[in-house]
């Protein structure tokens, strides 16, 4: 049981780290001389704030919400680990983690659909964008494991 708990915590922390990195690092799109992310656009001549369009603000919001819900889920897991009765399920923890995964998926989908209007020709998606997509199944899987998991002595 201890190995299972450590594995679940490791999976959760891996998803949380991916969420943090994908939200903070400025490589959602990259080109020969430019990089862009949710917050700032950089070229070889300098950096400027990201577009103020509603779609980029919604991506920013859902990515931040995914981090908040994933952190809350980890906190709730530790609280429920010590307070939940034997045989109880971690429904609240799982729900928060599944919501975090849905938020990151929504943000990545919005960015995928709207970025062709904003990203210059020749640019491609960067590693932060890919990390956001990798964080989605990790968070979803850990949320489903939390829902299925029962507390044992």
TrEMBL record:
<protein>
    <submittedName>
        <fullName>Peripheral myelin protein 22</fullName>
    </submittedName>
</protein>
<keyword id="KW-0472">Membrane</keyword>
<feature type="transmembrane region" description="Helical">
    <location>
        <begin position="90"/>
        <end position="114"/>
    </location>
</feature>
<dbReference type="GO" id="GO:0005886">
    <property type="term" value="C:plasma membrane"/>
</dbReference>
<feature type="transmembrane region" description="Helical">
    <location>
        <begin position="126"/>
        <end position="149"/>
    </location>
</feature>
<feature type="transmembrane region" description="Helical">
    <location>
        <begin position="58"/>
        <end position="78"/>
    </location>
</feature>
<dbReference type="Pfam" id="PF00822">
    <property type="entry name" value="PMP22_Claudin"/>
</dbReference>
<keyword id="KW-0812">Transmembrane</keyword>
<comment type="similarity">
    <text>Belongs to the PMP-22/EMP/MP20 family.</text>
</comment>
<dbReference type="InterPro" id="IPR004032">
    <property type="entry name" value="PMP22_EMP_MP20"/>
</dbReference>
<keyword id="KW-1133">Transmembrane helix</keyword>
<dbReference type="InterPro" id="IPR050579">
    <property type="entry name" value="PMP-22/EMP/MP20-like"/>
</dbReference>
<dbReference type="InterPro" id="IPR004031">
    <property type="entry name" value="PMP22/EMP/MP20/Claudin"/>
</dbReference>
């Amino acid at each position: 049981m201890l190995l299972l708990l450590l594995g679940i915590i490791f999976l959760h922390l891996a998803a949380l780290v991916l969420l943090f990195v994908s939200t903070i690092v400025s490589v959602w799109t990259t080109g020969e001389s430019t990089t862009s992310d949710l917050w700032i656009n950089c070229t070889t001549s300098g950096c400027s704030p990201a577009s103020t369009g509603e779609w980029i603000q919604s991506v920013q919001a859902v990515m931040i919400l995914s981090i908040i819900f994933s952190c809350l889920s980890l906190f709730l897991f530790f609280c429920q680990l010590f307070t939940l009765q034997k045989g109880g399920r971690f429904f609240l923890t799982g729900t928060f983690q599944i919501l975090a995964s849905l938020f990151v998926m929504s943000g990545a989908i919005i960015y995928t659909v709207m970025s062709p209007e904003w990203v210059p020709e020749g640019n491609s998606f960067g590693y932060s964008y890919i990390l956001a997509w990798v964080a989605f199944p990790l968070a979803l899987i850990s949320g489903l494991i939390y829902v299925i998991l029962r507390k044992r002595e």
